[in-house]
Amino acid sequence: MVHGRHGHDELEGNQFLGKELKYFSQAGFDLDRIHIKRNAPIASLYEDAILNEGAVISSSGALINFSGKKTGRSPKDKRIVYEETSKDDVWWGPVNIKMDEHTFEINRERAIDYLNTRENVYVFDGFAGWDPKYRIKVRVIASRAYHALFMHNMLIRPTPEELENFGEPDFIIYNAGQFPANRFTTGMTSTTSVEVNFKRMEMVILGTEYAGEMKKGIFSVMHYLQPVKFGQLSLHSSANQAKGDNGDVTLFFGLSGTGKTTLSADPNRLLIGDDEHVWSDTGVFNIEGGCYAKTINLSAEKEPEIFNAIKFGSILENVVYNPADRKPDYDDVSITENTRCAYPIEYIPNAKIPCIAERQPSNIIMLTCDAFGVLPPVSRLTPEQAQYHFVAGYTSKTPGTEDGIVEPSPTFSTCYGQPFIILHPGRYAKMLAERMEKNKVDCWLINTGWTGGKFGTGKRCPLKYTRAIVDAIHNGTLAKAEFENFPVFNLSIPKTVEGVPSEILDPAKVWPSKDAFSAEIQKLGGMFQKAFAKYEDAITADVKAAGPIL
User: Fold this and answer.
1) pTM of the predicted model, to two decimals?
2) By CB count within 10 A, which of 108, 152, 239, 257 is most buried?
């Protein structure tokens, strides 16, 4: 047994690293100076975060952390190293901005130099990808206990035996986010720099303490490795499976605010995961070991699963709390609207552990929130249309109340996850179409947005109707329904869906003015065409023709 504080520290000393020690000294870590804590217990990370980082424990036992100046990702500061092994595969441009190898070396050195000045350096070794055939070993090296606990929750946690035999990692994150990048280093646009090197399989973070950068860094790496090295399709999607013996699987695509997390959390189905998946030759698996849920306006009534997952071991990020009783105030957005909680996926009662389905998906649901109010609540897509809408990645943002803007703004984020893709969108779309074709997968486009008029005149399609549509997809009745053509976008829309008033199924019928509807649909069609033009260089003619015809 360990007695007293000193003995406790001795136990967690560097000898705990065992055969990993050699790696750290070779990488330039000064092991005489720093104290490396590898895969430390949750309670120990709590203690350090509270002692050194200003974290506090909430009334339900979660750890409330603050990420400092940056409360969201910094996509403009993300770089991909331009090197011979990956340069021909990467889709270079505004999403994947080039950085030369020398600059990467400077920043990597700067990160390690900074980590060497810390008393404690935290290491977490875990896996990305639940399928052992396609998983990668990830090592996170960070200066904050908060970052170690975050990745403990978001990666797949190794068993003691897996940790003992972990060996060389496939990918390493050096997170020195408390320390800025040097703005005079070639190619730096600010004091923040997030960069990924596929030749070295390393990521360096400087000048941002927002933990989501690490999560999305892993996602970017999987978006490169899965298609290029393994020939599998990585997707920004949620996934669930019917209960019972190897039940049917559904993939949900959709941008922020379209209902991806809400609709995949279905009490009648098992959750495989809420954000990042791979559609493989043998089924569907989650990339992550946890969930990173938005907590803005969270309540026990609206989202009980998420609300109840906020307990010991979970991290609340940038959430305001009442000092008198330590209760978080999820409605307070004074720090940021992007308040979050990171928790292990097993905190969700109907999660399927391991997070893997050994069968091909039966349905794909593409979610959009159309504030122009013209897209139908549900339509069935042909394989060409599925590719078109996947590449377009449409949703819209509703205007804020105070800034005098009354027009909704369209968002086109290719592959429903533009900031994270590495290859040309056409490559992911082609793989998607091939897999759909081979496995005879039905694809549906669901609009969770406005009906009976655009934002301001119409109203949001009630969640109970959207859930009824999803239920009809899952019980097979929707596929057997009678369909008719919806003009301009040429979509097949059902005449009836159980539990949904028939008149809302065709948007034209619920708009008070036919002329206003017609003008709005032409306008949205034009926006699609303009957005799609960027990707046309690598898209086949039949897919191009599957979009709106004006």
Assistant:
1) 0.93
2) 239
